[in-house]
Amino acid sequence: MNSTSIKYSILDLASVVEGDTYKETFNKSVKSAQFAEDLGYERYWFSEHHNMPSVISASTSLLIGHVAQQTKKIRVGSGGIMLPNHTTLSIAEQFGTLEAMFPGRIDLGLGRAPGTDPLTASVLRRGDQNLNYNFEFHIQELFRYFSFDNENSKVRAFPGEGANVPIYILGSSTDSAFLAAKLGLPYAFAGHFAPGQFQQAFEIYQSRFTPSQYLDKPYSMLCLSVFAAETEDEAVYHSLPQFQAIVNLLTDNRKPLCSPEYTNLENLSPELQAGVHRMTALSMIGNKEILKEKIGRIVTDLNLDEIMVYTNMFDFEAKLNSLKITAEVFQELNSST
């Protein structure tokens, strides 16, 4: 176990549950964040997605502001903003605005993936396919807009200039691990849907890390799908809709999250089974003791500083209960260090 306390946070995609309106979906995000705040969660992040009827976190900065307005101390941010979809000036202005409204509580996690299909990405980017997108250059450009050093530039971010908005690099492969290490920035890996290279990515990040003005040592974060309940059987039951959602994603049938009773996970083709397994290999499902053992081991093995928890459940009360049990897992792990 890391000698310091492991922080625990939440990733939210604003997933639509069958029968819910968009407003009800957003209301559940607010309630989850308020509940998480009381349980000691460090931050509550939204991830940018587009053209997905079952995931409505497209206007990420608006959701961040909506949740920050109705919470008091939990950090709120992006996990992440898909930078190629935006100009760096617009992101500096949006997050400068959020930081001005909610000082000391806003995070900016950045990814280079589209967060959508190629056609939608092309529309977002006005036809620019960004095949040679220079992620590092645009991150540096964003830092410049946030810096007082930009005050003599012809183009400035208001609000944004001088804003204290920590930047995190997100990744689902080893590429961003190299970049986060080079720039001396915190690194978050998307183990909740692309766990294939997680060990290699953290090894690269931690071994190659260069101290910077932002960070003097590596800060490693891993996002995991976590389904907790009083019993393992109950946790498995509540995880079924998320497994169905992955099948739906792989078959391009992106319906709202269904009830566990209406999942159809039998008789999947070998290809689908392999795809589901590939995307869910790091899912943590169980009661408190099972999760304590599994999460404790992965934190120690990877020398992690923080776990981001993604809990996509149909039953909202069961989801809140899962977040409560998960918080207890981290509190007990921290008390044993």
TrEMBL record:
Q: Which domain of life is it from?
A: Bacteria
Matching Gene3D superfamilies, A to Z? Answer: Luciferase-like domain
Which residue spans traverse the membrane?
none
Cleavable signal peptide: none
Q: Which residues form the Luciferase-like domain?
A: 11-254
Gene Ontology molecular functions: oxidoreductase activity, acting on paired donors, with incorporation or reduction of molecular oxygen
Q: Which GO terms describe its cellular component?
A: cytosol
> InterPro entries this protein is in?
Bact_Lucif_Oxidored, CmoO-like, Luciferase-like_dom, Luciferase-like_sf
Q: Which family does it belong to?
A: To bacterial alkanal monooxygenase alpha and beta chains.
Name recorded for this polypeptide = Luciferase-like monooxygenase
Q: Which organism is it from?
A: Moheibacter lacus
